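Quick look at the format.
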Amino acid sequence: MVTDPIADYLTRVRNAISAGHKVVDIPASNLKKEITKVLFDQGFIKKYKFVDEKPQGTIKIALKYDNITKQPAILGINRISKPGLRRYAKAGKMPKVLNGLGIAIVSTSKGVITDKEARRLNVGGEVLCYVY
């Protein structure tokens, strides 16, 4: 049993990138599906597919690399809010990652969105992770 499924998700993506894999399989949950959609919308992953088999299902993520330099699109992905210490931010105090070059993924009452979208909608929430 995994005590922090979001940290497991981020670690699987980080390990796949450092190993140079093109595709990574992750056990699915609704929150992980929403995080995957945000990563796709922001251009950090090439594509994704939800495979619903058995009770849980999996998420297949095709990682994105630069064609010339083979540099991954995700240079860093860090967990911020942990089960032992939750991190929340108000709309006015929403963190900026690398002065706006990266994104913070935030779980709000409007769903799982980026920090920029949370500022635009003027909502706060739990800061799940930083991606840059």
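Next, a different chain entirely:
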Amino acid sequence: MRGITLAVPSKGRLEELTRAWFAERGLTISRPGGARSYLGVMEGEADVTVRFFPASEIARELIRGNIDIGVTGRDLIHETSETGPDAVHFARSLDFGHADVVIAVPDAWIDVTHLHDLADVASDFRSRHKRWLRIATKYITITRQHFAKAGIAEYRIVESLGATEAAPASGVADIVVDITSTGSTLAANGLRVLDDGVMLKSEANLIVSRTTEWPADKKAYLNDLLKRLGAGVL
């Protein structure tokens, strides 16, 4: 049987919480080569190879089928590819890493409380300001899909490379699409989330690739592992 490759976040709080989650279920993940090593082991599971990757890379490699199973945010699967959710199996949410992808507008836009109000603003923006409505975001795929469903086409995305919430105050953009856990950072920058502005609720998930090869014996081993973790089988 070909072994299974499990990818877990490589650093920070996500790594700590992921390893703790597996340990609570009797599967201890260690990093024999130290914090700089990208190779790990799962004690007692010789057929599982553990790799440590950034969360965004885990999403990409799951979709491509280069790793079998991994822990990453639901938002990153949706953002990495329009077809990302179809390429994976969300086996289980892990109850940490909670955050929402939201649409936030300046507090001064008192008449803009819902997405349909924003649609009116977008269509009116060019005639008033001689330019497109500008949206600062790192979530380009999610933004385009959500706005297309809402029938909003008259806008321009400004790709955010830094603190997205600061973009309106600095004049770089008019509104933002950003990820938030509490909304406090947005509020501190004079922004508020639209009443129907939550585009995607996200948290860390145990995710299985549908695009990798799953011969019968490998799939049987995977499903046994998933059952032990209280996760949905493939």
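The CA atoms of residues 74 and 223 lie 21 Å apart.

See the schema section for token definitions.
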